[in-house]
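[step 3/7] fold_predict: job queued, chain A
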Amino acid sequence: MNKFVFSICLFLFSLAGFAQGSTLVEAEEDSTISVIAYFCKNDSLVYDYWHVKNRIKETDTITTVNVTTRFLVTVTDSTSEGYKMLLVPQSIEKGETTHGDEALKMEDLLTMPLGVNCRFSTDELGVIQHIDNWMEIRDSLKTNYKKIFDEVYAQNAGLDSILPRQRMESTFLLRCSSESGILQIYAPLVMLFNVHGGSFAMKKDHLETKNELGYPTHIDIDAFYTVPKEDTDNEGDYAIVAETTTDMKGDDLMDMVGGAVGMMVNDSIAGKLNETLKSEEFAKMQVKGLNHELYTFFYNGWPKMMVSEKKVNVDGKDALIEAAGLEWVSLHWNEYVEEEDDGEKQDI
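[step 4/7] structure written:
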């Protein structure tokens, strides 16, 4: 298959995602695990969030993003209606990639800003309701975006002819122009509370459904206790595993790919792309989006470790295009923490 066709499929799934969130399973109350926030005011946890992106070039897999972000989450208030929380970014460490400094700076446009804290609220179950200071974050992002675009385009004279700055800047500014857009930029926050408020059957289950775009989706899901309830005075720690597969065809992707890429590249490149999208080869190709998710929790609903891996299979050829995960580094329950911890895990 044409390498360009395969590459733009990877781009689409990396840009827009292809797997819906874990689907809740209806079951009897005594055979379910419910993800509920039993948090207390002043609970504070430090997490490491790692994020890796790959792309395919000929026969090689090239790592384009490799970033680890450390952040603190603390409960500033707890009421019967929900929780007020604070997310404090502490550090960002960039691992080895094949991209230079300019490319890494472009990736900074998609990560949480270090210079501003995120104040957010959840309901009593732990479901995120609002980013309370999203306008403050928006203003900080806009300032950072301009600085990064100034530097990247100044150092790459030919870049504007391929990726017009006005289009790129408008695309990124659109991302942070609303509360929902700001939430998506805080990917670790979304992952932390992704399944709170849900109930999952304590058995392996298979679901045939459709994703948010309406395409056939198959989900295998399992929930279980990792620390048996009888071995502790508490409910026990627990885990949820989901495998999601979404089937699509090339002709389903034509408008999606063309629209997403056409927003950023110049008109001549967009024209060549549209020619490829109209080809018989593209229309007939078989595409599978594969997503593996693992969520583990402490008994009180605080996330313990989470992993999400996205793959795409085009006409039988697999590629890992994105992986992300987070794990607690230290925790302090009922004790407010303002300074960064030493990084060593502490006993519960």
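[step 5/7] annotate
The chain has ten helices and 13 strands.
The first strand starts at residue 32 and ends at 34.
exit 0
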